[in-house]
Every structure is written in structure tokens, then in C-alpha cells.
Specification:
The complex is a heterodimer of chains A (310) and B (57). Chain A has 310 residues and is mainly α. Chain A is built from 14 helices and no strands. Classes of the chains: A mainly alpha (310), B mainly alpha (57).
Chain lengths: 310, 57
Amino acid sequence: MSDVQTYDQHGEAGFGDYVLLLKPRVMSLVVFTALVGLLVAPVHMNPVLAVASVLFIALGGGASGALNMWWDADIDIRMRRTRNRPVPSGKVEAREALAIGLALSLISVAMLSLVANLVAGALLAFTIFFYAVVYSMLLKRTTPQNIVIGGAAGAFPPMIGWACATGDVSLQSMLMFALIFMWTPPHFWSLALFMKDDYSNAGVPMLTVTHGRKSTRRHIMAYTVLLAPVSLAAGFTSIGGPVYLASAVVLNAIFLMGAWSIWHRDEAVAEADGYAVEKRVFKFSLLYLFLHFVALLAEAVLHAAGLGGW
Amino acid sequence: MPLAEEHEIHKRRLGRNLGIGLSLMAFVLIVFAVTVVKVAEAPQPGHVAAQFLGAKQ
């Protein structure tokens, strides 16, 4: 046996493992929504500064992902969906994830403050704090409302993007925040309905575990109803317009129909068809959010060409 | 097995080092580009002085 074979591969991470530590799929959502927030703002930003700002917002989002993986390694290993993450799978050590998370948090907040402005930097710092401390450490294991309040962390990026360009928080950026905030509960509860054993195995008090599946179905319906006016309200502000409003009406109608189906489904029927409706609504919810921001972007492009808006 | 033999762990380490190296280079390039833009956008000292003198006259 050679000496090279005596290496313990535990903790010997490849670059890809570091990338996974930053939750690239969440980062892609952060990049997209922050970019839209920045582009729909009424103040023009130099393209180099805009690209750098979005990159540092994404890096901050990644940092909070690494901190979350450091803190949640003990429950991630118990869930099918998360057990292959870099820390529970042993590819990255927990303290390494903590060091990377803290370092990237400092770099991203400092750089965004310098590249854009202090308001954007402060909002990014608060977002990282909210996700890593408020959601991961305080809420996730203690309350079934974890998703509802914790959803705020994912809702900040468009507000930060807007702040990069304007240096301010406004009604428009608050509505973009509210759109993601209200969308998060029905999105995650749809997932929780068909990943049913995961959360209970890990002892995470998801609504499905604490209040039962029937109550979760009712909650999905209620939050989807509350989401619709938020989505439509953005259409009547300066970032909205006919294209956005028409898209929002159609998207909300489909989402509401899906939520209605989930609400009226019997658990036995859902189990029999492999949670087909729940899976479909979960997938559609991703499209719902994506198309809302695409519509906002379309309005901004049309507006620049003298066509969009009211 | 000879010591020089390439083990999977060496490839992984090389990939990691390359990835981190490229990320650091990208960071330096971003800081450089941002600096160039910030300096170009900053008001020129001469203009500030001229404005100040103009306001006094």
C-alpha cells in the first residue's frame, strides 16, 4: 500500500464542494431577483458597478448558505434531501464551513458597501444575519412558523438590488420583498407535503409535523390568497404596467387553482397518486416567481423604449 | 505503488487550488474594474476648485 492511499478523504474537499456549500441554486434565485430589483430601479447604475453589486449580493447569499450548512449539519444528515450536502457527507468540515461563511459575509458586505452604498451593504448584512441567526438558529427548530418568518431572508435580494441603484428603500422595493415573502410559505409547504418523512425524521417542526397535513393544506390556500393582492399591487406602481399586470392575473389564477386542489385533496388520494398535484404546484410555484420577475424586467425594457408602464 | 503516482485526491486538490486561485484572480479584476469606474466617475479636483471659486465670485 502506498502512502497516498493512507490519506483520509474526510474533509478533503474539491472546489465543487465549496461551490455547493454556497447553495448555488438559491444563489441563482438571489442573482436573478437582485438583478431585476437593480434594473427596474429608476436610477441608472454604471454596468460595471451593477455587475459587481449583483456578484457581491450573490456572495453574501452564498455566505449565509455556508453558515446555515455549518449550523444545520446535524439535521441535514437525517434528511434525504440534504444528507449529501458537503458538511453532512464529510467532504467539508463544519468549522471550515463556518470560516468560509464568516469570511465571505465580511467580504461581501464590505465590498457591496464600497461598490454601491451603505444602505445596500447594511441590508445585505441584515439578510445574512436574518438567515443564519434568526432563521437557522432561532426559528427553524422551534416554531412551525419558521418558513413564514424565515422567508424574509430570501425576499431581501430585490430590495438590496433596488437599494444599490437608488440608495433607498421604497414602496416598489417593499412590494418586491413582499411578493417573495408571501410566496415562500405555500412554496415550501407544498414541498413539505410530499417530502413528508424528511422533516419529522430530522425533528424540524414543519407545519406538516406540528399541525398535521390537513391544516398545512388549508394554510397553503390561505397564503396563496394573501399572495395574490401583493402580486397585483406591484402592477399599479411605477415598476408595473399592463404586461406585468396581465401576467400576474394569469399566474395568480393558476396558483390559486393549484392551492384549491391541494386544499380539497384527501390524504389517501394524494398518497395513491404519489402527491402528483402537490409536486405540480411546487414546480409551478418556482415558475410563478420567475415569471413575475421576468414580467417586471419586461416592463423596465418596454419603459426604456418608451412603451411600458402606465 | 510508486510515490509519483497520481491519486484521485491529488486531482481533487489541484482542482480546488485552481478554483480558489481563479476566484481570487476574478476578485482582483473586479476590484480593479470598480476602482477604474469609481475614479472616472469621481468629480475632478480641478472642477471642484473651479466651482468653489466660481461660487465665491
